[in-house]
Prior knowledge:
The chain is of the alpha+beta class.
Amino acid sequence: MATKADSYKKIAEFGKQLLQDSSLDHALLLIADQAKDLVDAERCSIFMYDKEADMLWTKLSDGIGRIAISKTSGIAGDTFTTREAQVVNLPYEDSRFLAGIDKKSGYETKNMITVPIFDSQRKVIGLFQLLNKKEGDFLDDDLKVLTFFANYISGTLELSFLINEA
């Protein structure tokens, strides 16, 4: 198991790599792969908040097409509205869990970790949702590392979205 120091070193090295690429889509793939690697997860979705539609939608999701949900739906919506990261190790026992997405995709979610991404004004612009730790459950240390990572890459995402809107 990697130590927190090892995880933070990986994040710093990743930052150098991210700065070398200007493509938002490629940057999101790198971010998702790094997030999965940091916590040993199978899948990562990056949800972004669409102000005009007042919804969350996946800018990137592993193994499934675009997901669009209300900003208050599911565990992702709860993370968005409460602005708090959370670990859910028994999703099917959680009333907020959107089991229909699993049914549609054929993928079984065993556990998840969801972390908000803030902009420079401390508004939530999106969130990470990582599924299925490869061994065991997600832990508080995973939450700390991903929260640090989300804060680390938030400026890059905010800037990328501003550039793409221009």
